[in-house]
Amino acid sequence: MGGWALAMNSRVKDKAYSVNLIGAGGIASWALHGLVRPARRFAQATGSSLTIRVYDSDQVDEGNVHHQNFRPSDVGKAKVDALCGELAEFQGEEIALVACEWDVRSESDFEEADLTVVAVDSPDARELVTKSKKSGKWAICTCAGDSFMFLTEESSEQAISMVTKNAQKDASCQLPGAISEGKIEAGNMAVAAVAQTWVLRSLREMSGDEGAKIPVSRAESTVLGTLGIMTENREEVGE
């Protein structure tokens, strides 16, 4: 066991952490797969435990397998069941995955958590999470083609309004025609990696690791790079 893990172990042993992942599609399916392995190791190293609840009512369709983390054999299954089932081998005393086959539309639809990641194309769900005390610390992930936005409580009000009040509902993470024409982009995978990092480093911060730098709110493109920093004291995109 490393020095940091040994030092933290005495502080967080038997500590139970919880994460809500709202969505199980283009962003969340990659975020969950990327999160489970290192999160399990974090729990092992610190003597803690982690529960991840995944919320989504959708089923896997044939179009999903081209850009979401599903297999052809998953078609017809509930997305949350397919994801949690594939990752079942990682579950144990350290980490538990809970498949919640419904959408988040009100506070009664999700459990209180330390961290909540919204990765679903619902402005209403995003706004609900930003206002609910049950969310704990929260992050919002959106994407369109090669570009994405990653927002947190540190984001400017203008940036948050862009994804809660002025956003298009049911917007795909791929641009129109991208899937049918085979022009799939990876903005969804890029923001999933940022969300994964945000969760892992937030857990480290909560466990007492003062050196755990948390990802900043920003807009990026996998082609053009950073488009803007989205915090209150920094310029917005395009300024």
- End-to-end CA span: 47 Å
**Rounded radius of gyration (Å):** 17 Å
Please list the strands of the largest sheet in the order they lie side by side.
Answer: 3-2-1-4-5-6-7-8
Please give the count of helices.
6
Second rung of CATH, namely the architecture: 3-Layer(aba) Sandwich
The averaged pLDDT comes out at: 91
Strand content: 15-25%
Which structural traits does this protein have?
239 residues; alpha/beta; Rossmann fold; 6 helices; 31% helix; globular
Description:
This protein has helices at residues 3-12, 28-46, 79-86, 123-131, 157-164, 187-206; strands at residues 16-22, 49-55, 95-100, 115-118, 137-144, 147-152, 218-221, 225-229. It has 239 residues and is an alpha/beta fold. The protein has a single domain (13-229), classed as NAD(P)-binding Rossmann-like Domain (Rossmann fold, 3-Layer(aba) Sandwich), CATH 3.40.50. The protein has an eight-stranded mixed beta sheet, with helices on both faces. The longest helix has 20 residues, at 187-206. The chain is globular and about 50 Å long. The N and C termini lie far apart (47 Å).
Mind sketching the topology for me?
Elements: H1 3-12, E1 16-22, H2 28-46, E2 49-55, H3 79-86, E3 95-100, E4 115-118, H4 123-131, E5 137-144, E6 147-152, H5 157-164, H6 187-206, E7 218-221, E8 225-229
Parallel strand pairs: 1-2, 1-4, 2-3, 4-5
Antiparallel strand pairs: 5-6, 6-7, 7-8
Helix pairs in contact: 2-6
